[in-house]
Amino acid sequence: MLEHMDGRSMKTFITVMEEKSFSKAALKLGYVQSTVTMHIHQLEQTLGQALFKRLPRGVELTAAGKEVAPYAYRYLQLGESLQDKLTGLHEPKGVVRLRALESFCVPHLPQLLPTIFEQYPQIQLHLETGFQRDIIQEVSAYRVDLGIVPRDPKANNLTFIPLIQDELVWVGAPALISRMENDGWEAIADTKVIGFGSRCIYQTMASQVLADKGLSTFTAMEFDSTEMIKQTMMFGMGLSLMPLTSVQEELQSGKLMRLQQEKIILLEHGLIHRTGKDLSAPVQACKEHIISYFLAQKERETG
Question: How far apart are the C-alpha atoms of 50 and 65, rounded to whole Å?
Answer without folding.
Answer: 7
